[in-house]
Structure formats: structure tokens, C-alpha cells
Amino acid sequence: MYNKGLYSDWVPKPVQLLLIVLLLAVVMPLGGVYTGNISYLVSGTGAMTEYFMWANYATTIGMGACMPIVLRMKMRFKVRDKMVTLLVLLGLLSYINATTLQPMIFVFSSLLIGFMKMMVTIELFLPLMMMIGNRGMFYGVFYTFVLVMNQVAVYYSAEFALLYNWQQFYILTSVLCFILGLIHWIFMHDKYFALKVPLHYIDWLSIILFISAFMFSAYVYSFGRQQDWLNSKNIISASIAAFVSFALLTIRQLTLKRPYLSFKIFTRNNVLHGLFMLFWLGMFLGTATLQNTFAVGVLGYDLLTNAWLSMLMIPGIIVAGAIAIFWFKKEKPLKMYIFSGFSAMMGYVIIMYFSMVLEFNYDNWYLPMFLKGYGMCSLFISVWFYTLDKLEMNDMLAAIGLVLVWRTFLAVGIFSAIYSWFQYHFQVIAIGDLAVYMDGMTVSPQNVAANMKAIQLNAIIIASKKIFGYIILAGFGVLLYVITHHFGAKRFKYFRFVRVLGGKSVIARRRLRERKKLLEEIKDAAGPAM
Question: Which of 360, 236, 56 is nearest to 351 (CA)?
Fold first, then answer.
């Protein structure tokens, strides 16, 4: 027998919803590392920060690698067996992270956590989608909840590390995974979702090539500045390995009968424009490195205070989600909603540009972080919806891994690496410019040492303001692009005369309504598979 639900029939619907929410709250923020406690990991393990940046990227790569096969894995195993096994394995990986001091273990465990996490979350899409019924509204609810939980996880990982030590948060997540596994062994049904399908059609070599290509790329992004980019043999070798792996992956997909990835959707107009917008979203999200440098390096915030800044984004995230639900319910065009998201990001960047001074007050963070939260959530929802709109389910699943990695890893990683390099470069130039004041007139040789810290801080501010200035200039170009893009609307409309004799206009309108309803049902059915 088959059962498309998650839980046994005797479990009340409110209890089922509560269990789904608990799963989302624990599994979605789960990762090998958390940005809130990376500094504590560095001090506790003695490893370089770059290893944990690499591990952070690995979680996203693991999710992208799993995406093309999640539907086949969903139909191969019984729901209870798969969910309980995955939750136990996630708990074990978190426990391994809590007890190790080797940074490479964090990298590999993060990759596995991302891979397994995607198998768990795909099980939650169908029941949530059935309850909400509209793909756009589903994105509004889902992304709002996930982004809020991610900010909460960032803060509490820092708080646990400060009050106890960095291992305790991993132990907590491990225990929560074990408890959820036990609960779902009791409440879940022991049936298949649909017709059982074999696993031997999965091309595991393609998965290895996919992981290899992007893990080598993540190594380049993480260690590039530390090893001076192309002056390092390791960086050159990793770049070549990433290129060769992706080339072999592409060639293999063109020769397989059942390819792991499909490149057909990248000829679609909305997919190309969506990827373009996701790339510029990465430009705005990459400013997190600049913000952390300013907050910790210049203003002197402790790590817990810096982590609290992520919590200030939650009101903006909630507002963006509420507007998204209203927007999709009324079936309004996406253009102005996407424009509002990029405008909010521009507002955040402009405020940060003018606020970068040594006298910056903590109360001044509320507005820019609200705008950043609104912009991030609204663009995650709207641009993702537009990119995957009107795609066939098979094509969408076969390419969604690449789109996911592009959005969360490649775009953000590229700009983060660029900002890190330019910040160092501009800082050196700024110190050279400030050296004109050390000529014995403005600052005497005896006072140079006393003023060195102020000179260094001002150099950091000058470098950050330069980068924010260039982001503002590029951001105006992005706003111009968004306001002039058609977003699928017809550019030219022709008047048609409808015959009204014999009630044919009524029949025509009825057919249009039925066709629209059918298309919506097909579109909604594709959403959960994503």
C-alpha cells in the first residue's frame, strides 16, 4: 500500500503540523559550522578560519548534489525508515563535530549534513504544499520560517559558545536529532510514498564530479586571500581541478541515457534572467564580510553582540514574507515586489556607506538590518519563484542543484572573495595616503605609535566605504535592469473581437478559467518536488 502523507492515520492533524514545524526548526538551520561560532571554533581547534569557511560552503554543495536525486530516494524507501535513519545520522555527524579538533572533519561532515538535510526537507514540502495550496504563498511561508530560524541559530550558537563552549551547541543539535528520530519512529507510517523505484539508475560518478568541481571552487574562494591567489600553487591546482571536474561532468551528462543534470532549462528566458538577478543578490549578501569587519574590527563588538545583529533582520524577514503571501494570493505581477527587494538592499548599502564612522551608535543598526532582512527574504522568494516558473518537473529537478549552488554558494562566494581582496588592497592604499600626516607636522614622530591604532581603523573604514560606493553604483544599474525587464508580461497586446452571439463569450471565459485553474494545479504540484 502507498501513503502520500507522513504520519499514521490515527495522528491528529494539529499534531502532524506541530511535528513538521519541529522538524523544520531543527533540520533547516542544521550545518557543519555556524557563522556565529566560527571564531570560537578557530580558537578552540587552533585551525585557520578558512577551513570553516570551506565547511560552510560544503553544506550548500551537499544540498545541491542531493537535489537531482531526492525524488528517486523518496520513492525508493519507506518514509519512516528513511526519516529515522537520516535523523540518527545527522545527530551522529553533529556529535562527531562536537568531539573533533580536525578542521577537515568539519569540511566532510558539513558536506554529508547538507546532502542528508535535503533528503529530509523534501519530505516536508508535500504536506506543507497541500495545506497552503499555492506555490508562491508556500515560498512566502517556507522561506520566512527558514530564514528566521537561520538567524536564531546564528545567535544561539554564539551564546552557547560564550556561556559554555562551542561543543555544547553541537551536542544540543545532536540530542534534538535523536529525540526527533525517536518521535518519528512512533508517529510515522511504515508505507511507501508511491511505486518503488530502483536506485541503480542514479549515476554516482556524476555526483562525485559535481561535488569535486564545487568543493575545489570553494577551496579557491576560502583560501585565495590567505595564499595570495594565483601566486599559490595550491590555488592554481584547485582551479584547474575544478574546471576539469566540471568539464567531465558536462561531457558525461551529454552521453548518458538518464543524465544526473539537465542543461535544457538554461535556454529558458526566465531562468537566465533569474540567474542574473541571483548573481547580483550575491553582491549584496556578500557585504556580510564588510559588516563583520566594521562591527568587530572597528567598533569592537564582542562576538555575541555581533551575532545579535542577525536577529535584527527578523522583523524585515517577517514583513517580506507577509507581503509575499498577500502578493501571490492577489496574483500581482512580480516586478514591483522584486524591485522593492533590491531597493531595500540598496537602502541598506547606502546607509552603511554614510554610517561608517568611529562614532557609530548601536541604535543606528535597526534600520539597515531591517532593510537587509526584507531585501534578502523578498528576493529569495520572488526571484526563486520567477526562475523556476513554468518549468517541467523533470527538467526542474535535473537542474535545481546547479541553481541552488549558484544562488547560495557561487554568487555569494565570488563577491565575498572579491570584497576580501579589495578591502586588503584599498586598506594598503589608505595607509599610504594617511602617511602624509606623519611628516612631523600634523603627527610628530613621538606620537606616531600612539596614533597608529586610529590610523589603522580609519584605513579599514576608508577601504570599506570605497567598496560600498562601488556596490551602490552597480546597484543603481541592477535597479534600472529590474524596472525595465518585462518579467514574462506580453510586450504588445492586440485587441481581439469575441463573438457574443449564442452565448459564446460566456463559454470562452469559462474555458479560460478552467484552463487557468488546471495550469495552477500543475504548477503547484511541481513546487513540492523542488
Answer: 360
pLDDT in tens, 489-509: 554 444 444 444 445 555 556
Cα separation, 284 vs 177, whole angstroms: 33
Q: Residue 410 is which amino acid?
A: L
Range of the domain at 232: 204-257
| Dihedral sign of CA atoms 101, 103, 109, 113 in order | positive
Work out how many domains the chain is built from and give that number. 3
The widest CA-to-CA distance across the chain, in whole angstroms, is: 99
Within 13 A of 139's CA, how many CA atoms are on the CB side? 28
Q: Find the angle CA(38)-CA(472)-CA(336) to the nearest 5 degrees.
A: 100
- In the block, residue with C-alpha cell 541604535: 363
Query: In DSSP terms, which residues pair with 7 in a beta bridge?
Result: 188
pTM comes to: 0.86
The answer to whether 21 and 143 have CB atoms below 8 angstroms apart is no
Establish how many alpha carbons lie within 13 A of residue 71's alpha carbon, considering only the half-sphere containing its beta carbon: 16
Residue 390 included in any domain: yes
The Cα–Cα gap between 282 and 277 comes to: 9
Do 315 and 383 fall within a single domain?
yes
Tell me the β-bridge partners of 2: 192
Residues 209, 215, 219, 221, CA torsion sign:
positive
Residues 326 and 395 in one domain: yes
**How crowded is the C-beta side of 440, counted as CA atoms within 13 Å?**
0
Domain annotation covers residue 17: yes
Identify whether residues 335 and 400 lie together within a single domain: yes
484-to-128, 280, 346, 479, 480 alpha-carbon distances in Å: 35, 16, 17, 9, 6
Look up residue 423 and give its three cell numbers. 578591502
Q: Are 319 and 140 in contact (CB under 8 A)?
A: no
pLDDT digits (tens, 9 = 90+) for 233-285: 999 999 999 999 999 999 998 888 888 887 887 888 888 899 999 999 999 99
Label residue 529 by pLDDT band (50, 70, 90): very low
